[in-house]
Amino acid sequence: MSELVETLREGRVLVITLNRPERRNAVDRALADALDDALNELEDDPGLWCGVLSANGPVFSAGSDLKAMGDYSTDRGGEYGIVRRQRTTPLIAAVEGPALGGGFEIVLSCDLVVASEQASFGLPEVSIGVIATCAGLFRGPRALPPNIGRELILTGLALGAERAYQLGFVNQLVPAGTAKDAALAMALHICTNAPVSVQASLEAVNRVLSIEDPVGWDATAAALARLGESDDSREGIAAFFEKRPPRWSGR
What CATH number does residue 35 fall under? Predict the structure, then answer.
């Protein structure tokens, strides 16, 4: 059986690849732990100066595996092993196909984004009566124009890669099947720079950008508490597993 997360060293770059394509790279306990291990290696090895995060299969990640029942946090990385991680080593997301829900939140946890023309980004949680709990509610509107962030959150519809590039969320838009190679090329270029300068600069930028994160986490917790054990939340999840349209009650 193949590993849930593959790692490959290319010079001073660590290429990390999610490898659960049969489940659309949905994150459960085992995948979160494997990703956490890979990111620990990236951050702790002084010989690694940049990372690339990619995925096998047609879907980058569908986010949370609902069967995991929320059991996908790690001590060091938080949700999915990455969402609350404190990093100084740059990490580039290489996205082929949809990055939805927690998959989009994983991308939002990276520093740069290279996407193929077939990539898309979305927060479809409202379509099953839940909310984005892994920073999507505040990192999405921060990384995109606020109204576009609200659109993703409120409609549940996905944003195509070309539009995401036009809006400045995607750094490089590349042909299908080439996102990993393009991200690796960017990472190798970053490694031509002084590593201490890169790391100090990234730490400073992320410190400023994340200054309001505590407010975002509190707001997310308040929204989750309001949702609580609502009838619609139970109905949405049941409809998802039963593969039928949900019947909302507004309660």
Answer: 3.90.226.10
Residue at 226 is within a domain: no
Find residue 94's DSSP bridge partners.
Answer: 114
* pLDDT at position 2: 55
**Residue 77, both tokens:** 């990385």
- Mean pLDDT of the chain, nearest integer: 95
pLDDT in tens, 17-64: 999 999 999 999 999 999 999 999 999 999 999 999 999 999 999 999
Could you list the active site residues? 125
Distance separating the N- and C-terminal Cα atoms of the chain: 44
Amino acid at 73: S
